[in-house]
Amino acid sequence: xxxxxxxxxxxxxxxxxxxxxxxxxxxxxxxxxxxxxxxxxxxxxxxxxxxxxxxxxxxxxxxxxxxxxxxxxxxxxxxxxxxxxxxxxxxxxxxxxxxxxxxxxxxxxxxxxxxxxxxxxxxxxxxxxxxxxxxxxxxxxxxxxxxxxxxxxxxxxxxxxxxxxxxxxxxxxxxxxxxxxxxxxxxxxxxxxxxxxxxxxxxxxxxxxxxxxxxxxxxxxxxxxxxxxxxxxxxxxxxxxxxxxxxxxxxxxxxxxxxxxxxxxxxxxxxxxxxxxxxxxxxxxxxxxxxxxxxxxxxxxxxxxxxxxxxxxxxxxxxxxxxxxxxxxxxxxxxxxxxxxxxxxxxxxxxxxxxxxxxxxxxxxxxxxxxxxxxxxxxxxxxxxxxxxxxxxxxxxxxxxxxxxxxxxxxxxxxxxxxxxxxxxxxxxxxxxxxxxxxxxxxxxxxxxxxxxxxxxxxxxxxxxxxxxxxxxxxxxxxxxxxxxxxxxxxxxxxxxxxxxxxxxxxxxxxxxxxxxxxxxxxxxxxxxxxxxxxxxxxxxxxxxxxxxxxxxxxxxxxxxxxxxxxxxxxxxxxxxxxxxxxxxxxxxxxxxxxxxxxxxxxxxxxxxxxxxxxxxxxxxxxxxxxxxxxxxxxx
Length: 636
What we know:
Layout: H1 11-15, E1 23-25, H2 28-37, E2 41-46, H3 51-61, H4 64-73, E3 75-80, H5 85-99, E4 107-111, E5 117-121, H6 135-147, H7 151-164, H8 180-191, H9 208-221, H10 224-237, E6 253-254, E7 262-263, E8 266-267, H11 268-285, H12 288-304, E9 306-307, E10 310-311, E11 314-315, E12 318-319, E13 322-323, H13 331-340, H14 345-354, H15 380-391, E14 399-400, E15 402-404, H16 405-418, H17 424-440, E16 441-442, E17 445-451, E18 458-459, H18 462-479, H19 482-499, E19 500-501, E20 504-509, E21 513-515, H20 526-540, H21 543-555, H22 557-562, H23 568-579, E22 582-586, E23 598-602, E24 609-612, E25 617-621, H24 627-634
Parallel strand pairs: 1-3, 2-3, 22-23
Antiparallel strand pairs: 2-4, 4-5, 6-7, 8-11, 9-10, 11-14, 12-13, 15-17, 16-17, 17-18, 19-20, 20-21, 22-24, 24-25
Helix pairs in contact: 4-6, 9-10, 9-11, 9-23, 11-12, 11-16, 12-16, 13-14, 16-17, 16-18, 17-18, 18-19, 18-20, 19-20, 20-21, 20-23
């Protein structure tokens, strides 16, 4: 058998098509062969821009001796976690069960021939070290135990399978009230890094939902600590490193406390969420550098990550076989570039010092460009253009050109919101939304992912319905086109039909039945986002959607009330449910308000602004500057 990944479209699977291991994609044929030949199964899960996935490929999967052993004794399966998030979530839950901590990628799963799990790991080195069993020793041990029908191993596999399918319901419902904001604030303060911003030690992730939640708490309570946590973090993240201040866009996460050294992959979802967050923060705090950052992230996605009005998934950390090579600079090359461009020696030294480009470097003797303050010098735009052109002499990191409904919807929503700053983005967002709907809805079926020019094959998961739904709501808010509101209803109805069960939400219910999580991880949980969609439709269309949102919040209330920091997006929706939306009925344009839960409902019969709650209207004005005051007066 040859490596069957050569026939797959996934960029991640294509990266492994030349491995000597005889990989299968996830398919019935692989599992049938394992049963027929009584061989254990090895499942490797990752994604195209995953640095440690590349490391494991080079060290383990390209090793001829490893391949010979695996091909003889195992059935090996490769899974793109972005293409099949249901499979990934299933095995991440297995990892948590067996290791009592969160997993990561690459994910390494070993199963019996009957597909019952027996071991879950992440990156596994080829040889044993530091009390970690190496891939060579581990595979030999598993092969021997399976071939000898080791009774204990198969009993353990049955026990694991039982635990995986023994779902428990929350202990009890907890009444949610506005005091949940104090719990959230207290937990955020406990985790906050007062020196560099953010909410953990290294590695540091942007945690956009937590920062959005704190922004809303500030708007509702004027709490200065919430403001400080948001602004300090956003100012620190945007200075360079995690944020690429040369070509725009954010990397996945920082390996240090200072947001300086990232893993250099750039994900579509991070840039969408951070574009939205910086836009929101600019309006709240009036810090101009936040506006610049939001615009640069949008332009990065449009220039590097878009084709035919559809957004790609991610760009890689590695180029020319080296992590971060494309994004970093040698001192001598930057010096020569500026000298050749006519800068004087004293000015060159000042510029390079300001950009933290040094002879010793700050990353493998090369330099990550970073400013020490948010203020950009007068020469910055000229030098940025020169440094960008210098980069282009090297190969751009590989781009995963997979199109995903949920991640495209995130970016489309961000572009609509950015049109409050620069109106052209409303038209751009509309173009991308229409392209996404045309591509991913086929014969009334919503799909999860595809590639440009190919018909989608994988049907949508809860996250696709949820994120597309709130993008459609946003489109209605900015265009007044009621077609988008009708489409949002269809999406919500589909989500309720496919994934909802008396307050409980499933991420998938087809091949693998996987419960959705409330916790926000790489991006906000689909439960939080679908609750957002239901609350919006409850305010704009029909009260029944608000009922489903209430049942969702009630079902998950026990954990949410005690640990809101684990589910900040759903926390936002709980606060929103408690305080209630304000609906502005008008045919006029509407500026952003200070109250965070405002929706516009287009009404061509109203010349001014009619301000309503969920059950009644209570004020009107012809002066848009009075809307904030009238809303404030209506809030308990």
